[in-house]
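Late entry, written up from scratch paper. The run itself happened at the end of the previous shift, but nothing got recorded in the book at the time, so transcribing now.
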Amino acid sequence: MAMSAVCLALGAGYFRWDWIDMPQELIDIGANLAHDSFDDDRDAVVARAAEAGVTRIVVTGSSDRSNRDAAALAKTRPGVLYATAGMHPHHASEYTEASDALIRELADSGDIVAVGECGLDYFRNFSPREAQLDAFRAQLRIAADTGLPVFLHQRDAHDDFVEVLEPMLPQLSRAVAHCFTGEHESLREYLAMGLYIGVTGWICDERRGMHLRDIVSAVPDDRLMIETDAPYLLPRTIRPKPKSRRNEPMYLPEVLRVVAEARKQSEEHVAAITTATSVQFFDLD
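Output as recorded:
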């Protein structure tokens, strides 16, 4: 794979792709590298990712602790690691004024590139729904106040998610539906709302993700991004099968391969458009 792209602005929200010869690079827009499963080999994980062509990684913040850790990690490798800060709906009951202040502090200091992971998750309801709704609204206000994009999570909560998010969209710069796993109807609605779409190894799962292969081609080139959500969602299509079930950013090329196959596009093309879109979305270096 030897092609990439330069993204040229044609006006607010509109881009075209001009092709030039240059080494391919991939950007993993969502990896939980602050997770304790990486404590023993985090440097090696980043090195393996680079060897696989994953040159930049956005480290997801999802709790008070991981927000601090993700921001600290990003500072150790500027231009390679970036961070988000938010409160995952699983932790919504832990959201306090101090949590809000921390995200705002990290945003104001330029230590993060997006607010989130935030949203709603009614699949497990680890936090009460009212707490999830309150934390979600609070984080959308932070994004509106700071101008940062939003890194969104939604599972089994589509109607409430849209009800909370849609009125805020005019105040938000950009928003991505991270780890999209929904059906065609919800994808169509998210695209109509102007959301970007993040695709993970869920699309590689023959048990529950096959529907994504039928609908991922509906995502416009300039709204598609790819991610691992490591250490979760190890692509099940990897051959030979890894000995460990832990996912890591070096496996992003497998997500790329399956997405490209499903979209009937070349891997070079999907690599180029997802990289350029990620650079634009997160305003990366």
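The CA atoms of residues 117 and 128 lie 17 Å apart.
(Scratch paper discarded after transcription.)
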